[in-house]
Specification:
2 copies of one chain form a homodimer.
Chain A lengths: L15 H15 L6 E2 L11 H14 L15 H12 L10 E4 L2 H7 L9 E6 L3 H9 L3 E6 L18 E5 L11 H14 L2 E5 L25 E6 L12 E4 L5 E2 L2 E2 H12 L5 H10 L2 H28 L3 E3 L5 E5 L6 H12 L1 E2 L1 E2 L10 E5 L4 H16 L1
Parallel strand pairs in A: 1-13, 3-4, 3-5, 5-6, 6-7
Antiparallel strand pairs in A: 2-8, 7-8, 9-10, 11-12, 12-15, 14-15
């Protein structure tokens, strides 16, 4: 008799976004005349930019042509895309070889798959509040999880201390959900901790393109010592609107070695065994993001979301509410007014002003009392939601 | 100090197709004037059919349009595609609900990922000769592997016997590499074995579209009892030329329960944790395969490959060489002439007639003395390779 992976039974039953969907559905059924302003889930609203669309069409035409048709792609990524991404890092002074860059179907896929490189007995450190899948993927693998709470006192940017005993350190910066960004000095402390303890950092850089403060690091590899202790996982989802088009990339330096095993070589072996690579069409579309024209166009789109953030930040500033994020990240993390609980505030916004956000508690216990707004909505919806929020907060 | 997954060190060093690539590269370097006829790796040569190309272009246009833009897709697959696939099964009398169908990035990706559903202590049965990734994915997971040899005496279609002690049974039919296809009666024996022993069959049906004998089963779910013991993994790679475009699907019946855990529900949880779904563009392209026009066009392409098979089979028939496959599968599995070893025959073909095939030994020890031809090459190359092979075998 086969035994299923019984760790699935340890997963918590409810999933944050599922609960939000159920609550909004129930509200709309009871109030069919109401229109909702959705600032909850982090999905983009702008279409793909012209450079990407053109490249996608060309790639589809290639697949129709006997001479230009592409069959099996290299499992670790098409050379043209691996090189384009390595060059992108080079522009920020981070030197990578193309075979340290792996093309993926997206950060969420890769954050789960990459765990295959580590022993099940290793302990994962999740700095909370955090993206729920970090925890769930490790529960499924049967790995022990160490939760590190953060809060307003450290700006939701926790630092290592000797009491932490963990092997696999999740760091997301700019952070989802808080929008907080680690400085170079703060990241250096984690890199030093990892090198001293033989730990490995999984650095989630999905929101790096939203950083505007030039002193803040976009990549962990801007920090000295990171090549011997870090893996960076990135995505075009938010950078270029690829949430439904799917493309990401992962950097595993060749200097990353533990117990005599080279993790770059292990990942090559994993990919050649477990995938046949990412769609040629999508990789061609992704490559257009890294052209000068593509970079210009995606930054025009990012500016639209940044304007949304500015409008919401002004409302919170005027109401005197504490928040972080918004400036260098597409998320704003606010303290709920009057000591309200995060689901209580969710219900209030839904009922009174038809604005849907994300309760902080869904990202870990220390998120209780906080609330996340995504800035990926349309400018029109964001303006109206901000107007309604300002009015509500005045009461 | 983190411990890597040390099972990677147990993987055998050389990979079949890597060795073939090295040998052919060395030959071409030594003989720069020669042209090779590649009948080795199973990559397709015909471009995508018109119906798929048109659908892909439309989907790209959707991603350029604010009103029709698609962000995050449902993690388990777009409803339009899950329904199209369920209908495809319905046409063969197999009743599935759409939420028993999961969209994937392809069979090779899914064959690795699906192992996440099972305890590491379960034993995997691999019927050899077999696709090398079956073994490697289980080695990485630290699972014990039971190798079941097959041979000419059973037509490379082994049957269960009470001595087999295994939990996870890999069955590939039509088979890669042998091209042999299980009859309904033969599959029923495996389904009964699995139900009696609480085992689960992983049924790889990637080549089902090549079956022309109407008595042979395309799906394990044509067999009574399979809904309580089988998962089916399928691909559009060979069916519709998606090797570089990437799309597949997996069927997990809701009746599949072990130790109180429902595997369909577990897989929903896995996908919602570990992916954000498959690209909208590619899913739209895939949906066109299941339209009447798409079906007509892909079967025209399949017929081209079937004609290739016919040409090769005629050569082997005339030379009096034993083989299986070819008729209901895109692979032909031949006995090497004069008791030659499979790498010996590989070297002979490369040196004497510049034809590249795949040595049977690469698919498991019992493949020694056999050789695989893929029929996915161009008709022109296949004709020339067949002409040269016929001449060589006459000697």
């Amino acid at each position: 008799m086969i035994t299923p992976n019984m760790h699935y039974a340890e997963l918590k039953d409810s999933y944050l976004f599922y609960n939000i969907a159920q609550k909004t559905k129930a509200y709309l059924e009871a109030n069919p005349d109401k229109r909702l302003y959705r600032m909850g889930i982090g999905d983009v609203s702008l279409p793909l930019c012209d450079a990407v669309i053109q490249s996608l069409h060309e790639a589809v035409d290639d697949q129709a042509n006997k001479e230009r048709f592409h069959g099996y792609m290299p499992e670790c990524g098409a050379p043209f895309l691996r090189e384009a991404i390595a060059n992108y890092y080079g522009q920020r002074g981070v030197t990578l070889s193309a075979d340290e860059v792996f093309v993926s179907s997206g950060a969420s896929d890769e954050l789960g798959d990459i765990l295959d490189l580590f022993d099940k007995k290793s302990t994962a450190l999740v700095m909370e509040p955090a993206y729920p899948a970090y925890v769930d993927a490790n529960v499924i693998a049967g790995r022990q999880i160490c939760h590190l709470a953060s809060g307003r006192e450290n700006g939701f940017l926790p630092q290592p201390d000797p009491s932490i005993q963990a092997d696999l350190l999740y760091i997301c910066s700019p952070n989802n959900p808080t929008g907080a960004v680690f400085s170079k000095e703060q990241l250096k402390a984690w890199v030093d901790y990892a090198n001293q303890n033989g730990a490995i950092i999984l650095f989630d850089a999905a929101y790096e393109a939203f950083i505007e403060d030039s002193t803040l690091p976009h990549s962990i590899f801007e920090i000295e010592g990171a090549r011997t202790c870090a893996i960076e996982i990135c995505s075009l989802s938010k950078t270029a609107g690829f949430t439904g088009t799917r493309l990401g990339y992962t950097v595993i330096p060749k200097d990353l070695v533990r117990n005599g095993m080279n993790l770059n070589e292990m990942w090559v072996r994993n990919r050649t065994t477990k995938t046949n690579g990412v769609s040629y069409i999508i990789q061609k579309g992704g490559a257009a993001v890294f052209t000068p024209e593509g970079q210009k166009q995606i930054h025009q789109n990012i500016q639209v979301y940044k304007n949304n953030a500015k409008i919401l930040m002004e409302v919170l500033d005027q109401a005197g509410i504490w928040y972080c994020g918004g400036k260098n990240a597409p998320y704003i993390w606010m303290e709920c007014p009057n000591g309200m609980g995060s689901w209580e505030f969710f219900d209030l916004l839904l009922r009174e002003i038809q604005v849907v956000g994300t309760p902080g508690e869904g990202f870990g216990a220390c998120g209780e009392g906080y609330f996340r707004f995504s800035t990926f909505g349309s400018p029109e919806d964001t303006k109206e939601a901000a107007r309604r929020l300002a009015k509500l907060l005045q009461k």
